[in-house]
Amino acid sequence: MTRTLTVKRAGPGVTVQDLGRPGHLAGGLSRGGAADRLALAEGAALLGQDAGTAALEMAGAGGEFEASEDMRIALTGAVMQASLDGAPLVWNASHLLPRGARLKIGGCEAGCYGYLHLGGGIATEPQLGARSAHLGAGLGGALQPGACLPIGADEGLRGTGQRLDPAPRFDGGTLRAVAGPQTGLFSPAQIAAFENSSFRRDLRGNRMGVRLTSDTAALKPGDGLKVVSEVIVPGDIQITGDGAPFVLLSECQTIGGYPRIGSVLPADLPLVAQGRPGTAFRFQFVTMEEAVEIVHLEQERRLEIGRSLRPLLRDPRTMFDLLSYQLISGATSGDDLEREHQ
Amino acid sequence: MAFATEWPRISALGTDGFLVTFADRLSEPANRAALAFRHALEQESWRGVEETSTSLVSAYLRFDPRGASHAEIQSKLQHLLARENWFEVPLPQGRRLWRVPAVFGTELAPQLEEAAQAAGLTPEDAVASLTQTRVRVQTIGFAPGQPYLGELPPAWDIPRQSQLTSQVPAGALAVAIRQLVLFPVPAPTGWRHVGQTCFQLFRPDSDDPFVLRPGDELQFEPVGAETLARMQSDPGGGARAEVIR
Q1: What is the pTM of this model?
Q2: Of these four, A53, A312, B54, B228, which has the most CB atoms within 10 Å of its CB?
Q3: Which of A208, A229, A293, A299 to mutate to test the interface with B (most CBs of B within 10 A)?
Q4: B188 and chain A: CB distance < 8 Å anywhere?
């Protein structure tokens, strides 16, 4: 029998996401994929599976879900109210979703993009090498009630009942950036003013990018300079006509004509994606040497997330699924991994 | 931060890419140089390089900084740039000429008259100009499979609209600044909607999802709305291709 997850109800921004489709820039298709790639890595670590495993991205609000078989799940990214047949579920943790139980995921309490990961991953048919919905390109789309998603065979090794302490990223902060091809269109004084200004996340923002505003900074590139439409990449900080920075995210277009003052490092893009309207940001330029070092450290850190997991401590009086917890996770004898390997 | 002013120019883009820019404005030689240089990059297949593409006047290269350093890639780019005068390299072989049926004006393309007026032409002369000019795919980008086509005669150096059209349909042909854009997906645009085709430019489930390639040429053929309606069932929308020799 095929393992499936049925969507009973869904918010307007629930989509299937993975690491996207690199390699199609020449065709005009941007890579896309999860807005918060760190959350994708965290979910994969909680379930002991590949970081490219497709999950559900929930922008702003979740939905109600039901599984055709017992499944492992993990919840990461924006913190959302979640419950299983009415009993609250801990976020940033893995759980058992028993067959037929009702998983309810509500609105965000912090952040913008929450993720529901399934053991085995979402196994919809890949298009152009990925399962990610790319709304701008018309690939896939927001999930509608009644959608029935195939779920792959679960070969993960970590059972359930694990939790992690996520890297903080809901409160904005400093975005590290490198200079790019058009940084030179801005004067040193403008760049200094840019670094010394405080910005707030505007209401305008989606998977393509996020607009920031500032009370103090109004940036204009040098007089009369027109920029030929040029390759743009996620992280690029476009300075739009009114001087407001627009930071591009994973589903940005492939070329654009606004001058770009620099590019936010990939390691800091989860902060951009998860900052709600009003969240405060600053920018700080780093050298390319520093940036490359940060990129490497972040890649290593994401590979190590699995090591920082710890058991989810639960109050047995509220453990409605105590029986299945013991039977399936058996977190008592200490040889779970060995037994699951057999 | 120091920035070279001479062309071509190599600059880092993001933490894992380089842009090689051939000019600060669009011109036929700079567009051709970008295309030729990207073609050469593809032939080189350096270690660590993950993908290449072009925009109007530049070639882009993305690499894995774990597989190659910035210094290494930059030095290779400098050597390749110095190898020849990229502005003089002929266009790549295998380019195609596409003849694409389009309805000009009517309610299908409601801004023909406005655009013609901006160009100082009668609507009839505007259609003649747009259908007699063979335009080249200068780049594919913005949306999947979306071509920027040029260059139109000088009369078409008309600005974009100050207000965006909230949406044009897939297949829409729009004009501004001596260029045409053909839309693969419905999109908002500041360009004026002068023609309508049913040419599907992005076919995600096909072996060849991006139909047009930079360097291809297009010539539009005026047809009536009824003729276009009959072509709807063909993904090519009646477009025919021949190899340019």
Answers
A1: 0.90
A2: B54
A3: A229
A4: no
